[in-house]
Structures are given as structure tokens and as C-alpha cells.
Amino acid sequence: MALQSLLIILTTVLNLVPFISAANTNHVYSPCSDTTIQRGDGFTLAMAFASRSSFFYTTNGNSSVQLSPCDRRLGLASGNSQVAVFRPKVDEISLLTINTSSFEPDNYGGYMVAFAGSKYAARSLPAFVANSTYTVTSFTLALEFNQGRLNNLYWKRDGCAACGGNSSFVCLNNQDCAIRTSSCKNQGGSVDCSLGIQVAFSGTDKHYSVLNSWYEVANLRQYSLYGLYANLKNSLTSQYNSFF
Predict the structure, then answer these.
(1) Are the CB atoms for 207 and 221 separated by under 8 Å?
(2) Would residue 119 be called left, alpha or beta, if left means φ above 0 and alpha means ψ between -120 and 50 degrees?
(3) pLDDT, tens digit, for every residue of 128-165?
(4) The pTM is what?
(5) CA distance 132 to 5
(6) Scanning 68, 97, 181, 218, which has the fewest C-beta atoms within 10 Å of its C-beta?
């Protein structure tokens, strides 16, 4: 599938999980191809942005089935959609960022699906990102592997614990911390609403080694991951601010 060329992506790895360094053995770089991985490999995945209904295919029986964005039947390549491609390192906690100064998620349907693979296609449920009223800027994504092959992708939510009591945020559906879209810089406001996606790994690699980085994220959830990443983001780009 020919994916649209979409965004300038900054991928940053924060070395929170120590492990023995290994050479990369995964030379598959397309998010629409299958592969198996070991600890220390790079792994390519992507985020598709479109309307929620765009990720579902209606069968002849009129039932609706969610397909991978790589599936041509969805027609995302010719529709109102965008795709961001990343390559985090397996079993490190990674921070993936998308600069929204020239990209407005609400202009492309406002929902996001993480995906990778072809025959063994895995995709997350559609996650709300933005509409004309609210924008969610922080996400946590867990990648689950079985013997080195990606099985599933899960959005992990903390029930707004990270932004409780902060009047700058609104808690949506008791699960997502959101900023009013009118406050975002790309709407003339003062807040940088760039997206941040924390990625961690679970399961086993192709050598049956256990992937532990998701458990490290779970342990860190007693602290504010917003604060944990704030200094890193500020050191990488001057435009991020303390709202993340």
C-alpha cells in the first residue's frame, strides 16, 4: 500500500530500561510488512489520522469491521487522512512526538490508530485526538509481542490522574486529559498542543526473552510522566512548554 507522505517526525528514546546492547536484526522498515524482533532491534510502526468511521469497513452483510490502515479496502490513501511513521527501539520506553504547528489533527477526522504488519496486521482501537473543542496531547501505547511477532497494540489510560486538579485541563470521559483547542498555538492560543506518545513493550521476543519496558511504565505511573518527559521535550525543541 502506498501510504501518503505526511509529517516530519521527531522520535526520541529515553533510556529508562537498562538492557544488554544488541545489533539491530530487523531490516523491515515498512509499517505494512511483517517481521519478528529481538530486544535491541528497531521496530517500525505508524499512526494513522482520520475520522473514526474511516477505520471501519462495511461488509456485504452491513456489519462493520475495523481493518488495518494498510488494508486497501479502507481507501485511506485517497481519503482525508495522514500517517506518521516511527521506529522506536524494542524494549526501551520511547517518546514519539508530532509537531502540530503545521498539522491540525481535527482537520483529518480527529482520531488516531496505531498499526503495524500485513498478514499479521495489528491495530489499536481508534483514539480520540482532537476536535474543534478539545485536544488530547498525551498518550501511552503498549505493544504486545509473542515470540517476536506483534500481536496487539493497546492505548493505556490513567483516568485523568496526571491532570487532576489542574484547571488548564479538562477530563474527557473520565479517561483523557484534554486542552481546549482554542488555547492551542495553531489556533492562535498560547499552548503548544504537539502530540506525545509514550511507547513501551510487553510479551516475548523471538528468542523468548521477556520484554519488560511496559512494566517499568506501570511502575512509573505513581509519578507524573508529564513532568518526567517535560525537561526532555524542552531540551529537544524550544517550542514545548510545561503543559505536557
Answers:
(1) no
(2) alpha
(3) 999 999 999 999 999 999 999 999 999 998 788 777 77
(4) 0.82
(5) 25
(6) 218
